[in-house]
Write a structure and sequence with these properties.
Blueprint lengths: L1 E6 L8 E5 L6 E5 L4 H15 L8 E9 L6 E2 L2 E2 L13 H12 L10 E10 L4 E8 L8
Parallel strand pairs: 4-7
Antiparallel strand pairs: 1-8, 2-3, 4-8, 5-6
């Protein structure tokens, strides 16, 4: 099992757009969310620091995304009683997970298609980032 921390604000990948480069005729793919580049770079760097050779076989992955609470959740006496327990706001959890999976392809594993079991968590924390846990999916079966 491998577990590591990725500091930074988790970002979704955004929609992709493609266009042809008139100079060489090649297709260029860009993403709408410009902030996702920093997140993907942080994820790739952390994965490369912790995993020297891409993992093989079926994998079980847990993404625990942590977001900072907005200042409006706090009053003069600390956390307000009305502050929500869970961050049920943007960004969308699944989209953040997809951009994180893509950032680790070719580094932590050959392809994100190797992920056969995934746990996604979005919570408030004392610093923004993500705990990523990757393990062999030996014997982990879903409900039938």
């Amino acid at each position: 099992m491998i577990r590591f921390w990725v500091p930074g604000i988790p970002q979704p990948g955004g929609s992709k757009r493609g266009f042809v480069n008139p100079k060489n005729g090649r297709v260029i793919i860009t993403e709408d969310n410009k902030r996702s580049k920093d997140w993907r770079t942080a994820v790739a760097w952390a994965a490369a620091e912790n995993i020297k050779v891409p993992l093989e076989g079926p994998l079980a992955v847990t993404f625990e995304f942590q977001f900072m609470r907005p200042k409006g959740h706090y009053g003069s006496k600390g956390l307000r009683a009305s502050a929500p327990v869970h961050p049920a706001v943007r960004p969308d959890l699944l989209k953040v997970a997809r951009s994180t999976e893509d950032a680790m392809s070719g580094i932590a594993y050959r392809d994100d298609a190797q992920i056969v079991h995934e746990t996604l968590i979005k919570r408030y924390g004392c610093q923004a980032g993500a705990w990523i846990t990757i393990a062999a999916a030996n014997g982990q079966e879903g409900s039938t």
